[in-house]
Amino acid sequence: MNRKRLTQQGWFRVLAMIIALEMVAIAINFFYAPIHVAAGGATGVAILLDTAFGINRSLTVLIINLAMIILSIIFLDRKTVRNITVGSFLLPLLMYVTPSYKVVNDAVLAVIIGGGIFATGVALLYRLEASAGGTTVPPMVLKKFFGINTAVSLLCIDLTITMFNLIVSSTNAFFLAAFSLVVTMIVMRYIETGLDLKRQVQIMSNKHLAAIHQMLLDENLSLTIYEARGGYTNEAREMIMVMLNGNEYAHLLRKIHDIDPDAFITTTNVTEVHGGSLGY
């Protein structure tokens, strides 16, 4: 790969990272902050302090992120520090330059839209192996020294911050914040797994496997045939494995059942597939 190509990829990564962080800033300034809902993280703390004391949100995020950079320098490796540093400075800057006003009046709708935008931005950062810093650092430290699962500790931190809505804002804000965590989790999970979702189909047939094999070849599908042994009969049989896109599954199922209505089929969702064809 030549130097020009590497430079282009570097600039693309920086641009994608800025877009992802701006999505986080928009979610906070347009949807969460105007209705005083703090849904965890450094931005949640910023919303709480802004609501209670009028402290600038971007300043709060910057101070928290600086503290987290120092924490990561002390306890984590250089790669982690490098991954969180750029985002830690860019996010408060983008929050500062992005205007803040209420886009929708309905609080539930604001949480749904804001949660979707926020989750998309964070998921994109994960894809880029980047981070906005903040409360993602303590879970990594806890994982390193105590073996505590990062997802569990991050959820505990976010829930703790969410609980402060009861003190600073209202019960309504607390439930909205809790709901926003659910929205964010669902959207992130879908983005991380649903956009590249494939299905691994395994097929066995007592009498018609050859015909099914030929049908798959006629459909221009790559496939793998391997031996399976029955646990009760101890008899060896062949099994076909094929990888499909989601929109191909129903068509294939119908074609198999047309050949053998009693074919034994198991299907597994596969979130990602890398590399070339499995058929040979």
UniProtKB/TrEMBL annotation:
TM ranges: 12-35, 55-76, 107-126, 146-167, 173-191
GO cellular component terms listed in the entry, alphabetical order: plasma membrane
DUF2179 domain span: 223-275
Entries under CDD domains matching the protein: YitT_C
InterPro entries: DUF2179 (IPR019264), N-reg_PII/ATP_PRibTrfase_C (IPR015867), UPF0750_membrane (IPR051461), YitT (IPR003740)
UniProt keyword list: Cell membrane, Membrane, Transmembrane, Transmembrane helix
Record's subcellular location: Cell membrane
Chief location category: membrane
Pfam families: DUF2179, YitT_membrane
Transmembrane in keyword set: yes
Topology of this chain in the membrane: Multi-pass membrane protein
Keyword S-adenosyl-L-methionine: no
Protein name: YitT family protein
Organism phylogeny: Bacteria, Bacillati, Bacillota, Bacilli, Lactobacillales
